[in-house]
């Protein structure tokens, strides 16, 4: 089970509302089941599929790994 603060849930909600009607996604960063930071992503999927698909690029993944490392945390979701 993951523990997510109400502040981070609000940030997640803001991200998906801004992405609507397209898909929104991102990474959860933390440790020991506690989310301590999020990294919201822009959808890299081609325009025709953005309404129901999300593409996370290798560069997105690297950015998230580097962010987690800089915070002394891990990608957990």
The poorly predicted ranges are none
Beta-strand proportion? 15-25%
Helix % is 25-40%
Count of separate DSSP helical elements:
2
State the strand order across the main sheet.
1-3-2-4
Q: What characterizes the major β-sheet?
A: 4 strands, mixed
Give the terminus-to-terminus CA distance: 11 Å
Order of helices and strands: EHEEHE
Mean pLDDT: 91
Rg, rounded, reads: 13 Å
Gross morphology is globular
Q: How many strand units?
A: 4
Q: Helices and strands: which structural class?
A: alpha+beta
How would you describe this protein?
- With 77 residues, the chain is α+β, with helices and mostly antiparallel strands.
- 35% of the residues lie in helices and 25% in strands.
- It has a 4-stranded mixed sheet.
């Amino acid at each position: 089970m993951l523990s997510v603060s109400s502040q981070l849930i609000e940030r997640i909600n803001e991200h998906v509302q801004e992405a609507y009607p397209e898909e929104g996604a991102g990474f959860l960063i933390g440790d020991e089941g506690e989310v301590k930071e999020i990294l919201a992503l822009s959808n890299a999927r081609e325009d025709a599929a953005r309404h129901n698909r999300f593409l996370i690029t290798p560069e997105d993944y690297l950015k998230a790994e580097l962010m987690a490392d800089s915070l002394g945390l891990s990608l957990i979701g």
